[in-house]
Amino acid sequence: MHFRKEITMDNLNRRGFLKSLGLVSAATIASETLWADAIYKGSSIVERDAVSRGPAAKLINGKAIRPEHEIKIIRDTDVLVVGGGCAGVVAALSAARAGAKVTIVERYGCFGGLWTGGMVLIVLATHSNEKTGLTKCVRGIGDEMLERLKKIPGGIINQAPGKRDPTSDPEATKYIMACMLREAGVDMLLHSWVTNSIMEKETIRGAIFESKSGCRAITAKVIVDTTGDGDVYAAAGAEHVRHIHKIGLVHRLGNTDRIKSKKRMGGPTPHPSVKWVNMQGPPGDCLDVEALTRCDVDGREAIWNKLKALQEQPGNEKLFLLDTASQLGVRASRTLKGRYELKERDFGKTFEDTVGAGGAYFGIKVMCQIPYGILVPEKVDNILTAGRCVAADNLMLNFTRLIGPCLVTGQAAGAAAYLAAAQKTSPRNIAVPKLQELLKKQGAFLG
Amino acid sequence: MSNGTQESSRLRVSYVTRLLIPLMIVIILVIRPTWLRIFISSVSPFFNISTAIATRTATVPFVAGLSILVICICWRRWFCRWLCPLGLACELCGHVRSGQTSLNAIPRIGRHLAAITIGGAIASIPFFLMIDPIVILFGAFGMSGTAGYIFLGILAVVIIASFILPGIWCRRICPLGGMQELLATPAIGIRRRTKEEAPNKKESAMARRSFLSLAAGIAGGFAIRWIISPVRRRLRPPGAVPGNRFKTLCVRCGNCVRVCPSRIIAQDSNSPDTIGILAPKVSFDSDYCRQDCNLCGQGCPSGAIKPLPLIEKNKRKIGLARIDEPSCRLAWDAKCDLCMYVCPCEAIEEVFNRDKYLYTISINPEKCNGCGHCKIICPEHAISMKPA
Ligand SMILES: Cc1cc2nc3c(=O)[nH]c(=O)nc-3n(C[C@H](O)[C@H](O)[C@H](O)COP(=O)(O)OP(=O)(O)OC[C@H]3O[C@@H](n4cnc5c(N)ncnc54)[C@H](O)[C@@H]3O)c2cc1C
């Protein structure tokens, strides 16, 4: 012990240190090297700090006040995609491939949102299921992503002709998403939590986000809000509807093939010994941080209690909790008041401004065309949305929020954002036939 | 019996006209348009009166049937002579055998059967409704399956008996015949009085005994209703009268079984109690009770299933849905809302259970009308229908 301390204090260089160890036996060298290396390397001291969070808030008359200050604009881009869930990633890919300069900002450390971090593994509504047979609705970039997952061993199941609603592995999905974004030349920013919009009258010009680097701004010609919660369009003043929905903590169980229990537990995953449990959870407001905290804490406790009860059954001893989702399973919080609101009766309808289609959903076998109108707000310019916060009534949001339709709306929003940026107009004013043409070129299916 | 030979000679008068009407009745029974069948059953005064008393309702067919009742009061056994297809068949059988067999030794139980049935009807338990000749023919020609065979069996017994002892069914056993005799008694009395004949001692004894049978019927009916509790209760079609009343009021005509578009009504061939045998029961094995249909009530001739308008019928409880919580998908955190989705009464809700940290299905017994749609749709077969 004493010896080790001495060496660190002496601040030897690597060579001299190894030399000093030459006195000891070879076996000791190996183990001691590992240990010593970590300490030896140490950190490098930062001279010029890039972190700038602005002046601290002030306590004035018992109120916390944030002083006004300038925020550093770190990017000026064509298309800013906020939220790296399945909708956001596809939107960024679509816009970038069409030729736009794209930045994607995500608050967590990986892409995929609920699909990966939320551990919701089954991609529903990929096909319509009519008497004539299955029709693939999720084509284009979404399908390309699923196909790439197929190339990874253990990446996806049920992604094959004649099958629908595949289930993917979350880690494989995170990886493939990042690969595709990099290949398309999308500028990525992880660990960046968008907190507000930058407005010029009724028009949104960009967004500001908080991060470890402090508060930063990005300006863009068009903003795509794929936060799932409509954080950006709400900040921009777009009208919307607020929802209370179930909040669950999705988790995975391991060794499910090595136990006796006949009780069903969760859905299949690409790994035979792993099941994922789609916890329903209590109804709650997913924009209320207290509710979110409660759901995470209570949900985890419930999982352990249920696991204990399962493990106590004879033959189930090997069952274990593999992991809980790093992202709480929030289903719906805001839906846009768009140019059009999707309703259940729209299944099987044809829309002139269709930009895609979602497939069969529970009892409904026909496809549902997705009109462009559900992606654009009634009033605010330069913004559009995709994913689970598009304009749908409180029944139909259970369809639009499925991963299949999210992939479809994502691609449509990305392509529309590119067109708007290229034509220097607002997404509300682009020519829909042009958009449809572009989407078809990208391999999308419009229903 | 001189009366008998006199009658039979008169009965021979015009077979052609006599053949026509009963034949028509049989044809209608076989063709089975439900509304016509309902009218046909009201042709029998026995059926008409018993069911009207038992259900305490006067339907249009009942009122129409009253005209025949009036005729039967004025002319003794008019129905037997002109309308009864079974009577005609029995009579033809009787003619095949030459020679007369005396029926003198056999008592006239028909009147008593009729009196007991009418008495029972007051307690809503019309005992022998099912051996009304029209009902027998209904069953024998209009129904398939076990019920059809049973009625065919009864028909065969009646026919064979008529071979061996001509007239035994019509003059001694048939409650419809007995009923007509009861109806005609006052008329005969009046006629006698005008002719100033001395009242027949035998006749008045008969009348007294019939009255006793009526009283016995009333007592027996109420006894069944209140003393014998229904054994294991069945699901009955919507609007069915409750309990044992249903089992006796139903004439097993099979109309409800036949008209039901969902085919959920069937004859109860393994009823736990004898009086419930072959009464229609509902089972939700393959389908549920449609909310846009009230045909079973409309098709019931006896009022055992009330003819209710749609809105009323949909309020009647066939049964009550029960959920077996451990089997429900929600019990293992899977998403499912099919039962809630299909319930026409909005009786099903999911309720979050904080302790189990799960949703459980709650079925509101006030709202549930037991249509069975949830039972059919449930992918885990977790829902069952129990009598309300
Ligand atoms: C418990 C549960 C079960 C489900 N089951 C299924 C199922 O079986 N099948 C199915 O198809 N669908 C299912 N869904 C729905 C589906 O998973 C999601 O609706 C879908 O993945 C949403 O995708 P999205 O891209 O629109 O939003 P999200 O996946 O929510 O993505 C939004 C992304 O934006 C990021 N973000 C949010 N706010 C900010 C911000 N302010 N700044 C920066 N980044 C931000 C988030 O971190 C996230 O990565 C389920 C959902 C839940 C919650």
How does this model look, in words?
- The complex is a heterodimer of chains A (447) and B (388).
- With 447 residues, chain A is of the alpha+beta class.
- Chain A folds into two domains: 73-243 and 332-441, FAD/NAD(P)-binding domain (3-Layer(bba) Sandwich); 246-327, no CATH class.
- Chain A is built from eleven helices and 24 strands.
- Chain A has helices spanning 2-10, 14-21, 26-41, 86-98, 140-151, 170-183, 231-235, 289-312, 397-400, 403-422, 432-441; strands spanning 58-60, 63-65, 72-82, 102-105, 127-130, 133-136, 156-157, 167-168, 187-189, 192-200, 203-211, 214-225, 240-242, 245-248, 251-254, 267-268, 274-277, 283-284, 320-324, 329-330, 334-336, 354-358, 368-371, 383-385.
- In chain A, the strands form eight sheets. In chain A, strands 3, 4, 9, 10, 11, 12 and 24 form a seven-stranded mixed sheet that branches.
- In chain A, β11 (203-211) and β12 form a beta hairpin.
- In chain A, α4 (86-98) runs parallel beside α10 and α10 (403-422) crosses α11 (432-441).
- The radius of gyration of chain A is 25 Å and the shape is globular.
- Residues 1-12 of chain A have low confidence and may be disordered.
- With 388 residues, chain B is mainly alpha-helical.
- Chain B is 54% helix and 7% strand.
- Chain B is built from 19 helices and six strands.
- Chain B has helices at 2-11, 15-31, 34-43, 45-55, 60-74, 78-82, 85-96, 109-122, 133-142, 145-164, 168-173, 175-195, 201-226, 243-249, 255-259, 295-298, 310-315, 338-342, 373-377, and strands spanning 265-267, 280-282, 320-323, 348-353, 358-363, 383-386.
- Chain B has a two-stranded antiparallel ribbon.
- In chain B, β4 and β5 (358-363) form a beta hairpin.
- The longest helix of chain B is centred in the middle third of the chain and has 26 residues, at 201-226.
- The termini of chain B are far apart.
- In chain B, 45% of the residues are buried.
- At the A-B interface, α8 of A face loops of B.
- Bound molecules: flavin-adenine dinucleotide.
- Flavin-adenine dinucleotide binds next to α4, β10, β20 and α10 of chain A.
